[in-house]
Amino acid sequence: MRVVDLDRDMSDVIPTGMTPDSEFLFDRMTQVTLDRTQAAAGKLVLDVASGVGQDSIALATRGANVVGVEPSGRMTAMAKLFAAEKAGPMPDWVRGWSDSLPFATGSFDACICKGAMDHFDCPGEAIAEMARVTKVDGKVVLAIANFESLACRAGRGLDDLRQDVFGWPAVRVRRGYDAPSDHFTRYEVGLIREQAEQSLIIESLEGISMGWGMPGWSRLMAVLPSAVALPAVRGMDQLARQFPSLSDVIALVGRPRRSASTSA
Ligand SMILES: C[S@@+](CC[C@H](N)C(=O)[O-])C[C@H]1O[C@@H](n2cnc3c(N)ncnc32)[C@H](O)[C@@H]1O
After folding, report:
1. Is 124 touching ligand 1 by the criterion CB < 6 Å?
2. pLDDT tens digits, the chain, 264 residues: what are they?
3. In angstroms, how far apart are the furthest CA atoms of the chain?
4. Is the pTM above the cut of 0.85?
5. Are the C-beta atoms of residues 120 and 97 closer than 8 Å to each other?
């Protein structure tokens, strides 16, 4: 049996009280990853681990033909409910695992996998499958949380100082730099690059946002006037573009590593 909770519904992932830094991070991550698919009318796009379907729906709203593939019936049921509230052509929903995608080689113009690869038990095989089902000149877009971000490093450094230098007891809440229990992989720039290179020719690797989850950062952003908080989070995003290894989220774009003359 596969160790995946197919009854999950994202209520533990989607933040409830949004602070300016959270709002910026989630919006920007979505905007960048969707933009990099180059979705438009006439394009066929696959959303792998489509979850509750918000990205598939947004891509369909841009005019693309979209397929959302997801193993969880519960998540897909929610996606169908959200899609039913929208006008215009909506995605097709297919049940399937990322490491054995039920599609022919070279079927899609683009393939997107956002915020999900750390939940996969076989991420290398999943990237190989995304590369297989994407056209040779198509795009595979991977977006994943960076557990070696500036915020993770700062949080870990502060805890080390508390415990090792001052001898204070460990903080009991879950530490932001620890991967959650439902993650198989703790991604950082080197690892995502190494896994992706097996199946993709990497075209770009971008950092998105910086500082999210840093001790005190969210609280500070929440109390500052928005005329100060917004330029601050935008400024940190500029830094993330310069230094992706310290960013909160990594967005990687590649094209399949196979020959147009030998493959579909
Ligand atoms: C955190 S959610 C992300 C969903 C969506 N991409 C988003 O950005 O909101 C992770 C998703 O990965 C799915 N998942 C877990 N293991 C999987 C696997 N091996 N193959 C495909 N999907 C998987 C889960 O069911 C869940 O919907």
Report:
1. no
2. 565 656 555 554 545 468 899 999 999 999 999 999 999 999 999 999 999 999 999 999 999 999 999 999 999 999 999 999 999 999 999 999 999 999 999 999 999 999 999 999 999 999 999 999 999 999 999 999 999 999 999 988 787 777 777 787 777 666 777 777 788 899 999 999 999 999 999 999 999 999 998 888 888 999 999 999 999 999 999 999 999 999 999 999 999 998 655 555
3. 63
4. yes
5. no
Q: Which two tokens stand for residue 210?
A: 């910086």
For residues 57 and 230, what is the distance between their CA atoms, to the nearest angstrom? 27
Ligand 1 centroid – CA 50 distance (Å): 6
**For the chain, which residues make up each domain, given as ranges?**
28-148+185-210+241-256
Specify which residues 142 forms β-bridges with.
Answer: 113, 252
To test ligand 1's pocket by mutation, which of 5, 57, 70, 144 has the most ligand atoms within 8 angstroms of CB?
A: 70
CB of 93 shorter than 6 A to ligand 1: no
The answer to whether residues 192 and 249 touch, using CB atoms and an 8 Å cutoff, is: no
CATH superfamily of 28-148+185-210+241-256: Vaccinia Virus protein VP39 (3.40.50.150)
- Cα distance between residue 255 and residue 264, in whole Å: 13
Q: Is the CB of 256 under 6 A from ligand 1?
A: no
232 within ligand 1 shell (Cβ under 6 A): no
Q: For the stretch 197-222, what's the b/e string if a residue is b when 16 or more beta carbons lie within 10 angstroms of its beta carbon?
A: eebbebeebbbbbbbbbbeebbebbe
Ligand 1 atom closest to residue 72's alpha carbon, by position in its atom list? 25
Q: How far apart are the first and last CA of the chain?
A: 33
What does R_g of the chain's alpha carbons equal in angstroms?
Answer: 19
